[in-house]
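Course assignment 3, question 2. Fill in each field.
Student: A.L.
Task: Predict the tertiary structure for the chain below.
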Amino acid sequence: MKKTLLAIFLIVSALLSAQKVKFGAKAGLNVSTLTGDLGDTSSKAGFYGGVYTRIPISSSKFSFQPEILFSMQGTKEKDSYTTLTVHETIKGNYKFNYINIPLMLQYEIIPGLRVEFGPQFGFMVTKKYDIDYYYYYYNILEEELHVSGTAKNLKTFDFGLNVGANYELKNGVNFSARYNFGLTNLSDVSDYSVKNSVFSIGVGYTLK
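Answer field:
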């Protein structure tokens, strides 16, 4: 982790020393879930926000945009079991907070409109869960249990790829949409796969 952060810092520092750069801030909405060996999952809404630097690459339409973002992610999960007399339901709400570092290569198609692609390094800072359990016998609720805690057997480092688009007005206000698909198996359990999947929309402002 320290080596990764050092490499990112050195790359960004070298680019900053060679180019005229712009700085900005952004925030928006995440719609996230987890894919892999899970039950019936559904998307979870969360906040993201942070800062970025846009570095032009020579005189071309390409630019490099490193970012540091706080990102609320996770998923909701539901499992059930039913017989003639018994019905059991388990609902899980998984709440993961990340510090993400996207490194985006952007290309300006027309003035103000950029498409982007690049890797993302994620560092999980919290991994909480809430689980609700319901047991019914002949459709009568017999038992109800609520459990909260810290998720175990999950890696705290995530690597993924981003693809998206950004449109910026002349006054610096910009609007963005991005999809992140995680490549790291977050599970520490053998033969069990869990990966991040996050769609984001947001608004930002680039200092002129």
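Instructor remarks: The mean pLDDT is 88. The two ends are 33 Å apart (CA to CA).
Grade: pending
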